[in-house]
Design a protein that fits this description.
253 residues; 3 domains; 13 helices; flat
């Protein structure tokens, strides 16, 4: 219903019709955004408000989205979250165009990657870095650009971007983390560990490193390579990488 129709119904005290319309629309939106609710047990709020905002191309509260993901009420790669990331990416890209603030570039790029749109991330980071004076910003742009290259499987340009990012800002841990992930993608785990160690020396948290390795295992399509990585991790530290056991084939468990 339109806002005018809702206002008219409220004026005539027909909240019952409004509620019925909302429930019907909720069912349609759940189907559109892939929310599984076989027993119709999902509460109307906050999901109805979230989906209607997405329909109107309105930004969501990022904190609310994170909380719902952490509580398992939203899938981190579901349609609602992807739509949220796309809106955030577009917002920061428009803010960059409006204000000229180049720090919006790596932010927009990061959101495009989360929205599974690495090509858009590469487009917005495709610029002349020599025109940027701040080395930290140059490095940040190259890191997210290199990560986008990783997303499309271009490890050569991913590594070039990471190494250039290190040249621009060697004290930042992000490019070293990227290098570690690249070498894990190549199945060169000892070299990857070297770069991850360099990242930790510069402030990277162990949990963040492990999360990066988990993402590598999840995204690896070659089952043989995945098993090699799992075996390597468990041999290296069976306690720290105990989570990797879930990727083992049944015959190895």
């Amino acid at each position: 219903m339109t806002d005018t129709e809702i206002d008219w119904l409220k004026k005539h005290e027909r909240e019952d019709i409004i509620n019925l319309a909302h429930k019907k629309e909720f069912v349609a939106l759940k189907k559109k955004y892939g929310l599984l609710d076989p027993g119709n047990q999902l509460p109307l709020e906050p999901f109805y408000t979230i989906m209607t905002k997405l329909e109107r191309k309105e930004r969501l509260d990022p904190l609310l989205v994170v909380q719902l993901i952490e509580k398992g009420r939203l899938s981190g790669d579901g349609k609602i979250v992807i739509a949220h990331y796309s809106l955030e990416a577009d917002f920061y890209e428009q803010e960059f165009k409006r204000t000229g603030n180049k720090w919006h570039i790596p932010t927009a790029s990061s959101y495009w990657r989360k929205a599974d749109e690495p090509e858009n991330a590469l487009n917005i980071t495709n610029l002349d870095l020599d025109k940027i004076r701040e080395s930290k910003l140059q490095s940040a742009i190259l890191v997210t650009r290199g990560a986008a290259f990783r997303d499309i499987g271009d490890l050569v340009n991913a590594e070039k971007s990471a190494k250039k990012a290190i040249e621009f800002h060697p004290v930042s841990y992000q490019p070293y983390t990227l290098m570690g992930a690249i070498y894990y993608d190549k199945s060169e785990y000892s070299k990857g560990d070297y770069w991850f160690t360099e990242a930790e020396k510069r402030g990277a948290k162990t949990d963040d490193i492990d999360d990066e390795i988990k993402r590598v295992l999840r995204s690896t399509k070659d089952e043989i390579k995945r098993q090699q990585a799992v075996n390597y991790l468990l041999k290296k530290d069976s306690q720290r990488y105990a989570w990797a056991k879930c990727y083992l084939k049944k015959s190895q468990k």
